[in-house]
Specification:
With 311 residues, this protein is an alpha+beta fold. It contains twelve helices and six strands. It binds 2-acetamido-2-deoxy-beta-D-glucopyranose (2 copies). Its main location: cytoplasm.
Length: 311
């Protein structure tokens, strides 16, 4: 009789312990989710047509147009899923870099020959661009004596992260590294600032070449420098780059430059241009055959998502 009630007591304690542990585990996993998953800046894939139906309800002309454009992507372009990318002013840089990293695309050929860590020094000392001290870092708006040191840090982060991720051959391991990287804003922003700085570097180089009438540069540079806002490298930095990520995002010409310097063909499906010749655009338009290709999808040339193809 005694042993029976002893067993019951033990059983009862075990159940208490079990439900206590279960609760602990649940709290712990919620905590982990908040820590890791909720901050993902590139979400996991969702069904394309489901997304379109949720986003574009109603019978307005624009909503119908968008739904039709999504159907076209689904049926004719074999895009079945999309990954949503956080909507801020770094959006397109994020969508591009995320794909480069997650597909394990290596450094462009010129970055293998030239160490990107040296670029800030090169502009400052060899090219005499002491105005790069006025570089500011997107939403951080940092301008101060240490801009140069901060730039070096950004370049270092880009180089080490890109090297490490592209050397990881296992698809799943690479995906996990990307999820870690793309859920921490401070790390992400360093990468984007590094890319922005490389854009500046390219513009400085091209500007010098055009001035000295050396070899012909890619015609995207003449387009870029023809704008009032960026008729020379300094004004490009002050009027455009310093605000990218903060109050403005890359425009079309800058997207050409991005594809060119990363040596990737960026194919963009522009849904608001559905039924026109500008529905599918490649950035840049001229590309070499050996370049890797990535794809983006946009509804407004401002925010971008990542389309996924399946047959
Ligand atoms: C995720 O965001 C929350 C607040 O929005 C923050 O407290 C937490 O540290 C972030 N986690 C990571 C891994 O960045
Ligand atoms: C990314 O770079 C930072 C800074 O250099 C480094 O601490 C971090 O471990 C790197 N992460 C990966 C996945 O390479």
């Amino acid at each position: 009789m005694l042993s029976m009630s002893f067993l019951v007591a033990v059983f009862w304690y075990c159940r208490r312990l079990y439900s206590f542990l279960a609760q602990l585990l649940k709290r712990w996993s919620n905590y982990l989710q908040r820590k890791l998953i909720r901050n993902l800046s590139v979400l996991t894939e969702v069904d394309l047509l489901g997304y379109s139906a949720r986003e574009w309800k109603g019978e307005t002309k624009h909503a119908k147009h968008m739904r039709e454009a999504y159907e076209e992507l689904f049926w004719s372009c074999h895009i079945k899923y999309l990954r949503q990318v956080r909507r801020d002013n770094y959006c397109v840089l994020r969508a591009v870099l995320f794909q480069i990293f997650s597909q394990g695309i290596p450094f462009p050929s010129w970055m293998k020959e030239r160490d990107i860590l040296k670029l800030p020094e090169k502009l400052l000392y060899s090219q005499g661009c002491n105005w790069i001290q006025q570089y500011s870092f997107g939403p951080e708006r940092y301008t101060g004596p240490n801009a140069f040191g901060k730039l070096r840090k950004c370049m270092e982060t880009l180089k080490t992260n890109w090297t490490e991720i592209s050397a990881t051959k296992d698809h799943e391991a690479r995906g996990n590294m990307c999820n870690t990287l793309f859920s921490d804003e401070s790390k992400e922003h360093k990468l984007y600032e590094a890319i922005k700085f490389i854009m500046l570097y390219e513009v400085v180089e091209a500007y010098e070449q055009i001035k000295n009438r050396e070899e012909a540069t890619h015609n995207l540079f003449s387009l870029l420098l023809a704008r009032d806002s960026s008729s020379d490298p300094l004004s490009f930095m002050m009027n455009r780059l310093n605000s990218i990520g903060d109050s403005i995002c890359l425009d079309q010409v800058e997207l050409f430059l991005l594809g060119y310097l990363l040596e990737v063909k960026i194919r963009v499906y522009r849904l608001h241009r559905f039924n026109t010749e500008e529905f599918q655009v490649n950035y840049p338009e001229e590309y070499r055959r050996e370049w890797n290709e990535i794809s983006l999808l946009t509804e407004d040339d401002r925010y971008y998502h990542i389309p996924l193809f399946r047959t």
